[in-house]
Specification:
The chain is of the alpha/beta class and 102 residues long. Helices cover 32% and strands 19% of the residues. A 4-stranded parallel sheet has the order 3-2-1-4, covered by helices on one side. The protein has a single domain, classed as 3-Layer(aba) Sandwich (Rossmann fold). The structure holds NADP nicotinamide-adenine-dinucleotide phosphate. The site of NADP nicotinamide-adenine-dinucleotide phosphate has 20 residues, from helix 1 and strand 2.
C-alpha cells in the first residue's frame, strides 16, 4: 500500500484509472490526466487529494506540455502509472490471414 506519495495516473478519468484513484487517494496525492475534461472533473469532485491536467498522451507535444505544467506547479512525482491505452478485442477464429488461412 502506497502512502504519502505523489502519483500520476494517465487515463484517470474512468475505468481502472478512476478505480485506482478511489483506492489510493486517501493516503496519497493523485494527479490524473486524460483528453475529456468533464470526466477528469468528475473524478476530482468525487475524491480527495486529486488534481487533473487535460492531455492526450498519444501526442508527444502534449506529453511535454503535461510535464512542463506539472513542473511549473512544483509537483514532484514519486510514481507514474501509465494506464491510458486502448483495448481491442476480436474473435481470432474469424480472423482471415492474407494467405487465406483461418
Ligand atoms: N479493462 C480491461 O479488461 C483491460 C484488460 C487489459 C488491459 N487493459 C488496459 O488497462 C488500461 C485501462 O483500461 P480501462 O478498461 O480502464 O479503459 P477505459 O475505461 O477506456 O479508460 C481509459 C482511460 O484512458 C483515457 N485515455 C485513453 N486514451 C488516452 C490518451 N491518448 N491520452 C490520455 N488519456 C487517454 C480515457 O479518457 P479520455 O478518453 O478522456 O482520454 C479513459 O479515462 C488500458 O491501457 C487498457 O489497455 C484493460
Amino acid at each position: 500500500m502506497l502512502k504519502h506519495k505523489t502519483i500520476l495516473i494517465t487515463g484517470g478519468g474512468s475505468g481502472i484509472g478512476e478505480a485506482l484513484v478511489a483506492n489510493q487517494s486517501k493516503d496519497n496525492k493523485m494527479i490524473i490526466c486524460g483528453r475529456n475534461e468533464s470526466k477528469l472533473h468528475k473524478v476530482v469532485t468525487a475524491n480527495k487529494n486529486v488534481s487533473y491536467y487535460v492531455a492526450d498522451i498519444s501526442a508527444p507535444s502534449q506529453i511535454d506540455e503535461l510535464f512542463q505544467k506539472i513542473s511549473a506547479d512544483r509537483i514532484v512525482l514519486d510514481v507514474l502509472i501509465n494506464n491510458a491505452g486502448v483495448v481491442e478485442q476480436w474473435d481470432i477464429t474469424k480472423t482471415v490471414l492474407s494467405s487465406g488461412w483461418r
